[in-house]
Write a structure and sequence with these properties.
The structure holds two protein chains of two kinds.
Chain A: E1 2-8, H1 14-22, E2 30-37, E3 41-42, E4 45-46, E5 49-54, H2 58-73, E6 76-84, E7 86-88, E8 93-101, H3 104-121, E9 124-130, E10 133-136, H4 141-148
Helix pairs in contact in A: 2-3, 3-4
Chain B: E1 2-5, H1 7-13, E2 17-19, H2 29-37, H3 41-46, E3 54-57, E4 60-62, E5 73-77
Parallel strand pairs in B: 1-5
Antiparallel strand pairs in B: 1-2, 3-4, 3-5
The chains are: A alpha+beta, B alpha+beta.
Chain lengths: 161, 83
């Protein structure tokens, strides 16, 4: 079980990260990756850039706690979480969550769980730049709802088909 | 104790961190925010809607009723928008 958590300014290569997780392995049957990108609009208005502020130290710790929880809930063989900070422009990658497992169910569920928690619990804040100036993106209630669904008692590890 | 501020809380205060010694009687995160809000106009503006502001003690999320005794680092910030 290998977990990689990285916070960085630089871009990442999702393909290379998956290759790193699966190279030489024959026990992995499923890889799920989620890559978040910077869009050119926010609330229907064009944006020039997105700046991600984070809380160094806590961000790593909080993501680490959620990765640990994901590993306790699902039979994973590896997890990679990379989150960028700093100024990004439309089309740039922001975040990568990759989960690997013997079977797809665990990999899908764990990736979804981790993204929902990154949205609502990882200490990052997005500020957008538009022609009108800069403003902070407000948290969405729908993201809280998405994270809330995982707080019900999780189904225990079941043999995935 | 060391206080850290992020995003618009930081912007409204014009600083990212500071060292404070709250008086005896300030026992919880909620009380600490109320005490800070009384310092001056900038603090009042930053903490005017304390219900919205989230807090963490020593890198862990806490609720407003969490005790601050023994805290090394307390952070205040808006709801998170990462991912």
């Amino acid at each position: 079980m290998t977990t990689i958590i990285r916070l960085q300014r630089e871009a990442f290569d999702a393909g290379a990260e998956v290759e790193r997780m699966t190279r030489g392995r024959t026990d992995i049957g499923a890889v799920v990756t989620f890559t978040g990108l910077c869009r050119a609009d926010e609330n229907g208005k064009p944006i020039a850039a997105l700046t991600l502020e984070h809380y160094p130290g806590m961000a790593e710790a909080e993501i680490g706690r959620h990765v640990e929880e994901a590993c306790a809930r699902w039979p994973l063989l590896g997890v990679t979480v990379i989150h960028r900070h700093g100024r990004l422009t439309p089309g740039d990658v922001i975040v990568l969550v990759a989960t690997v497992s013997s079977h797809r169910e665990a990999a899908f569920a764990a990736a979804s769980f981790l993204m929902d928690y990154l949205k609502t619990r990882a200490p990052f804040w997005k500020q957008v730049e538009t022609v009108a100036g800069t403003s902070w993106i407000e948290a969405k209630a729908s993201d809280d709802v998405a994270a809330e669904r995982w707080s019900a008692p999780p189904p225990r590890h079941e043999a995935a088909k | 104790m060391r206080l850290l501020y992020f995003a618009w809380v930081r912007e409204r205060l014009g600083k990212a961190e500071e060292q404070v010694e709250p008086p005896a009687g300030i026992g919880t995160v909620r009380e600490l925010m109320a005490w800070l809000a009384k310092r001056d106009e900038q603090y009042a503006h930053a903490f005017e809607n304390a219900n919205v502001i989230r807090a963490a003690i020593d890198h862990r999320h806490v609720r407003p009723d969490a005790p601050i005794a023994g805290a090394g680092e307390i952070a205040f910030f808006p709801p998170m928008t990462g991912g």
